[in-house]
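Sample 1 of the test manifest.
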Amino acid sequence: MTFNSLIFVLFFGAVLLLSITVRHNTFRKRMLLLGSYYFYAYWDWRFCGLLLISTLVDYTVGLLLARTDAPKKRALLLLVSLVCNLGLLGFFKYYNFFVASLAAALEPLGWDMQGLNIILPVGISFYTFQTLSYTIDVYRRRIDTCRDFFDFALFVAFFPQLVAGPIVRASDFLPQLQAAPRVTLQRIHSGLRQFIFGMFKKVVIADHLAMMVDMVYPNLTAFDTPTVWLATAAYAAQIYCDFSGYSDMAIGVARMMGYDFNRNFDHPYLARSTTEFWRRWHISLSTWLRDYLYIPLGGNRKGPRRTYINLMLTMLLGGLWHGASWAFVLWGLLHGAALAAHKFLSGRFLPRFHHTVARGIWSFIGWTVTMTIVMVAWVFFRCGSLTIAGQATMSESFALALDGISAMFHWREGIGWIMPQALLGVGFVVLTHLMELHPAGRRLKRLPALSLAEPTLLCTLVWMIIVFYPENFAPFIYFQF
Amino acid sequence: MSSPTRWSYVWRWITGAALATMLIWGLGAATVTDAVPWAYSDVAQRHVPLPGATVFQNKEGRGFTAFGPDGFQGLPDDYASKRLLPIMGDSYIEAFQVDMREKVFTRFNEIRRERADLYAVGLGRSDQNLSDVYFLLPRYLRAYPQIAGVVLLLHPSDVLPNGTNQRLIPSPEPRAEFSETLHVPEFPWLGPILLKTKLSIFYWPAKQFLVSLPSFRVRPGPAAGNTPAPPGFAPLSKTRLPYPDSIEAFWRSAIRQIRSRTNIPLLILMATHAARIHNGRVVYDRPTEEIETRFAEVCRKEHVPVILLYDRFSRHVRSGGALPRGFANSRPGRGHFNAVGHQLLAEAISDYLDAHPEFLSSPPTAGDGQ
């Protein structure tokens, strides 16, 4: 059941109706919990057990942490949570990867290894990080232990963010469950607006960009340089519209029911450095990695060299979080290296301009360099997805990525395909980003809620979603992570 | 958001929805593929695009198509004084994706402009195949005596049993017969939209509604169409063919059935997938090679020339030419023939006529009965 399906619209319509009519907060939360498990079971009911195990482990660890002050015991409890959660995640997500890597390494010796075909439970990366953040925060005494099991279960399984984020912190969400939220017309209006914008980005932009990306990427070697560049830009736009579209829909759905999630994207392609990019892209993941990985590793408190290592390590694990493929590892390393380089340069060599024009030129140079790095990293990322989809082996996807990057920077003849839909899709992303640069553009994007213009725009978007709805099922890209 | 009165809020949404609908309607009129206005043709004894109708296709490719009388494309005003060479086929000849200036008959006429011995016209309809030739050709020849010969573009699937109107036959059992049914006009844009929105059960009633109300279309053609079939519509009787002791026997019988109805010079072009992109390379596989060559051999014995296009198409791509299928707004190497494909078709026909000047002058003899 994806947000962009008719069955979800029916499901959510029923849940929203109950949310509005059921005033008693406890009943309301139980109903949402049931609905969330139904939503998850709709994918594959067998994985509800995993969700329950993760919930039970962290709920119990949270209760036990509240009962003890002994540092060793607390550390042991935290370790139990980490082992259970990361063990499940590691098994389901990385088993195939390690077996395949081992098999590839042993093949020259004549050893033939056969592994199990493990199916990745949808959303496991997201809810694992969510439950971990709760346990770590309780361990650090930053939040109180949640004593109501059903509240905690709802925090883990709440359907808007369950399968593809945003990664919601317990400190943000659990307090919202204490009192019955007010479901007002304003909230429904605002949530619906965000939901429609998100679905438009997914259905009309991302799914149509996929047509070019899905053709070009498995066949990168056949296409010429402009086509590879356009396909890469199309992929950058596609993954942004797909993932930020999902986040918008999740935030909108939650808001309609009276709950607030934090923003997950903030015009990432305006970033003038990779550091800024990660403040704008998948914010809930980047802040999670910062708070629960980078800072515990020492952050920037242990000298420059250790800071660079920490950045590289954090991004490497961030890459691996996306999937078990060397291409994701390289994607993470590339971002880590860019973050470290920016850290290194910004402290020493990056000039500070006081003149507006000079500052503008310098910003443009920074933006160009950042976007080039981001684009090159997307090539690795997309080729890594080929491995997950079973369209290429790890070595093939790696070779494909290198070929694509080579084609981007060395002119190559080949099949040319400047697809108009891709230009339109990329143009849409460029336009929405450019509008954010100017106050007039920002005003235009935030139409007065009660003007005639907004219902007209939203109805037009709904019409376009209906007309351009893809013939074939197009899952969200981040479901595979 | 300040709190509006409930009615003003609802009223704004109703007005907004109405404005959005008009906006989408207007955008659709400007961009969505046109509906074809249909008219009944006494010559073809079936529905054909209304004479004077124009179609703008925007989905796969981006082309403009104009129809003349009886479903012809590119028929000149002074056709009575010309030797016509209709190029028949299915949607590949209908070619909504390709602009009139780039279609096979236009390119053929350009290539042979100086000789001016023949004038090619298009006569294609989606889903037509070998069986349609049996019914259509004699009628067109009676109405247009200027026709000097016919080129027929076929796909391997067009010459297999059960290829006849296979979409309309729910039974999977093989059929080996030519049978004529009244073709129901279709709306190329309507089906995909309803399929996309999972509302395909509404296709038939919607189609009937649009048939009865042409002005309700997103973008109607220049004239009203959809005249119903006359009461006197009389399909020709079915023609049973032997099936399938050998596929050759079926083909031989099919060609002889066609030959029994007309003796006009007939040239068959066999369209195949010559080149496609796979695993980052252009591959030249030819899964239907056996069908093509065996069909061509039967045709040769029946004195019907066949041009297998594979060699020409693959040679063109190997020498650095563009893929003959696919458009800027669809996947390269897949789908209908693009302008390059149409140019190659035109060259193939022209080259054949140059190499075989006797083709149009000497009517074929009966088959040798192999």
